[in-house]
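Weekly puzzle thread! Below is a chain. First person to post its structure in token form gets bragging rights.
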Amino acid sequence: MAGGRSRPGGRSARVQASVYQAINALLAEMPRDAISVPQIAARAGVTRTTIYRRWGDLRTLLSDVAVQRLYPNNTPADTGALQSDLATWAQEFQMEMLSLSSQMLMRDLLAGANEDGSGPARQCAAITRSQVTIILERAIERGESPPELHDVMDCVVAPIMYRLLLDDAPLYPTFARKRVALLLENAR
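Winning reply:
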């Protein structure tokens, strides 16, 4: 099973942690395209067979690592209002995704997709949805009327990702905030 999720503890967790640590160290030292399974295995102190049995191939392993690296370090800021909460989060999301390392991680995620579209990219989308859900639930608790989750994903997140990964149009600094303003204006 990709990512070693079949057994969450014990040796399985230690192997996963050492492999992730090895990849992160290698990424700090050399270009992503120069990394190989033998290098990862040597750095992690495991055999190549362990890596191939657990992840199948380098592409899948890098996709799994990308998911782990894209987990947010904190919950979205609570500014006291839906528009500012969502705009602040979207701006931070855009800035994070603009980094070259995040763009490489996103490409790794997409490269690791299964034929049916499942896989690490879907896990990344779930992480993003969970962050947005926190913001929308806070708004409801404050008595605000937030848009639907899928509307935020379609109107804010998707255009950012499209611009970053597929389009050559610039992603100007206020793009995310303008997308939030458009979403909320159209929701009224």
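Puzzle host: Confirmed. Bonus trivia for everyone else. Residues 2-56 form a domain with the Arc Repressor Mutant, subunit A fold (CATH 1.10.10.60).
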